[in-house]
Design brief:
The protein is mainly alpha-helical. The chain has seven helices and four strands. The strands form two sheets. The protein has a two-stranded antiparallel sheet. The N and C termini lie far apart (83 Å).
Length: 170
């Protein structure tokens, strides 16, 4: 295993990183329709010219290009969104339901609630049943916990609370 003296004398190179690491090389020239100096220089290289002549001219058949088709999962997402848009009156997406539940927290009167639910195209009785079991996160400002770490960065923890929709009881 070696003595401690030989280990202490070992030293690893502390040189800079190799030139190729992390550094970007020159970007390759782009295709051009006009002959530039670089194109003229390439034309003088016999190996390059030989390889180009072996390849031959580029042939593109534009009539047989097939359009890109979306994958099956993305098609399913699109189909279900279309189905939801054309579905029955009481069918809404989770995002729309979340927005409706959040807006209902600010409703002050049964009339406001009714107009809000109608705006979303939902039956009021159906919404009342759903809102009994589903809610959106709310934050009670008295439960916010502020902490400062040793670097001076502040973070906040805000436990979610269940806020009853008192207006739904009417």
């Amino acid at each position: 295993m070696g003595s401690a003296a030989s280990k202490a004398s070992r030293s690893y190179p502390k040189s800079a990183k190799p030139a190729w690491s992390g550094a970007r090389t020159e970007s390759l020239p782009k295709a051009s329709q006009v002959k530039s100096k670089d194109i003229e220089k390439d034309a003088q290289d016999p190996h390059f010219l030989s390889n180009l002549s072996k390849l031959g001219a580029v042939r593109v058949d534009h009539h047989h290009v097939q359009p890109v088709r979306p994958s099956a999962p993305s098609n399913n997402v699109v189909r279900s969104r279309i189905r939801l848009e054309h579905a029955g009156r009481d069918d809404i997406s989770a995002q729309t339901l979340s927005a409706l539940l959040t807006h209902c927290k600010s409703a002050q009167t049964p009339r406001e609630l009714e107009s809000l639910v109608q705006k979303y195209g939902i039956d009021l009785n159906t919404f009342r049943k759903v809102a009994t079991f589903i809610n959106t996160p709310s934050i009670n400002s008295a439960t916010v916990i502020r902490t400062v770490n040793k670097d001076g960065q502040e973070s906040q923890t805000m436990p979610a609370v269940w806020v009853e929709h008192n207006i739904l009881k009417y």
